[in-house]
Specification:
The chain is α/β, with parallel strands linked by helices. Helix content is 46%, strand content 15%. The strands form four sheets. The protein has a four-stranded mixed β-sheet with strand order 1-4-5-13, sandwiched between helices.
């Protein structure tokens, strides 16, 4: 680091941020280089993360950090495709299988969607874990198969490769064990560095707010959405965001294979959860608008509904699954192909009344308890287990009616999950008014 002066030493960069000063783009680039090549120790990375957590970052610093982490590995180039390239990112929730419908809907409307997704985190499910429940599906293909699928089908849902924003992987692992995950600026750089590395031309963000989200309040969600939109646009990526409600599970299913079934039922029109449909169509409209394929949100919604109604979206999903190694008849016969849990038990309503509230995070943790999520990052998960038939807030029930159906590997884990789900549901005499599914739209100021 000689030639750059004392301020390029790790301890001097840490000192500067510790004392509340802004870092230069060169200092941030030196930090990210140190993340990548190991010249910053874990202790030094943790110290800088805590300094940022306590003192924050300016918008310019956040943009510089995002771009430096993007450039720490491969940056994909889709310029040879004949249409716009777009994607969405969700901050995570329970029963949030939107990606499985959204990618094929938007692809069926003429955009290209190279959707690079993650695994479950804490109580929230991961898109990649859901796709892994499909037999034969290659969730982490090589670049050649990934490009071929996007080019020929129009969409591909895959996992992050080791060469996309590798600096973020180490940074996140250290933040995860040093109580610095919740920094808005660091969350922003982590999310956007990977999306920028994916070579997108536009991005739509789904920022969750509620008792099942990482951002529990609307104020917290709005702050993150504003940061993401401003930094993404500052980094040259046209981006908008929707703040959506996560005070109850989004779909009526939570798990892996069970959410895939829910998605196929949605795409084919067999069944569509109303709140899930509202969020999916709203995000599709935003993606089509940001891609330049429509001129208004209303036109985007209409185009998305047409892709669903004609069956084209379901067809695109089936072609994507087949291209990435899954069964050719998956859409037609998904239940036959997906794993199924040995034990199914209903959770009974304790009294007559209305579903007044759902402790959504507890429902997500019940799925983890069943084996459908991880308590150890390296652990395998059981794709068959989960919860279906989750009743939405406002539903009328009689005593003994099923609030949900638990799918478990054995009776013991079924009983544990049933108690957790029963405790998560509140039944009251008066019918509540649930929040709207889409709470707010955030765009560049």
């Amino acid at each position: 680091m000689s030639g750059k002066g004392q301020t390029m030493l790790p301890q001097e960069i840490i000192r500067r941020k510790r004392d509340g000063h802004r870092l230069t783009a060169d200092q941030i680039a030196a930090f990210v280089a140190g993340l990548s090549d190991g010249s910053f120790t874990d202790g030094q990375v943790a110290a800088l993360a805590m300094a940022v957590f306590l003192n924050g970052m300016s918008r310019r610093e956040a943009v510089a950090l995002t771009l430096a982490m993007r450039d720490s590995g491969d940056v994909l180039d889709w310029s040879n495709l004949p249409g716009p390239v777009t994607d969405k990112h969700s901050t995570g929730g329970v029963g949030d299988n939107v990606s499985l419908m959204l990618a094929p809907i938007v692809a069926a409307c003429g955009a290209y969607v190279p959707m690079i997704s993650g695994r479950g985190l804490g109580h929230t499910g991961g898109t990649l874990d859901k796709m892994d429940s499909i037999p034969g599906y290659t969730a982490q293909p090589d670049n050649a198969l990934f490009r071929k699928t996007v080019r020929e089908v129009g969409c591909a849902i895959i996992g992050q490769t080791a060469r996309l924003a590798p600096a973020d992987k180490r940074f996140y692992a250290i933040r995860d064990v040093t109580a610095t995950v919740e920094s808005v600026q660091l969350i922003t750089a982590s999310i956007l560095s990977k999306k920028l590395a994916a070579g997108l031309q536009s991005l739509v963000l789904d920022v969750k707010a509620g008792n099942g989200a990482f951002m529990a309040t609307r104020k917290e969600a709005a702050a993150l959405a504003k940061s993401l939109v401003e930094v993404a646009n500052g980094a040259g990526l046209p981006t908008t965001a929707l703040i959506t409600d996560m005070d109850q599970p989004l779909a009526s299913a939570a798990g892996n294979a069970v959410e895939v079934v829910n998605a196929v039922d949605f795409l084919t029109g067999r069944a569509r959860d109303p709140r899930l449909e509202a969020v999916t169509i709203a995000l599709a409209a935003e993606m089509l608008l940001s891609s330049g394929l429509v001129r208004s949100v209303a036109a985007g919604e209409k185009k998305a509904r047409e892709a669903l109604g004609t069956g084209r979206a379901a067809e695109f999903f089936g072609r994507m699954v087949a291209s990435l190694g899954g069964p050719a008849d998956f859409v037609e016969d998904c239940r036959r192909h997906l794993p199924r849990a040995a034990v199914e038990r209903a959770v009974a309503a304790p009294r007559a009344g209305y579903v007044a509230a759902v402790a959504t995070r507890e429902v997500g943790l019940a799925v983890v308890t069943l084996g459908g999520g991880r308590t150890d990052p390296a652990a395998a998960i059981d794709h068959a287990v989960g919860i279906t038939g989750l009743l939405p807030v406002g539903t009328r029930v009689e005593k003994g009616d099923p609030l949900a159906l638990v799918h478990a590997r054995d009776e013991a884990t079924a009983e544990t999950a049933m108690r957790a789900v029963a405790a998560a549901y509140s039944v009251a005499a008066r019918k509540p008014t649930p929040a709207d599914s889409v709470l707010k739209r955030v765009e560049k100021a």
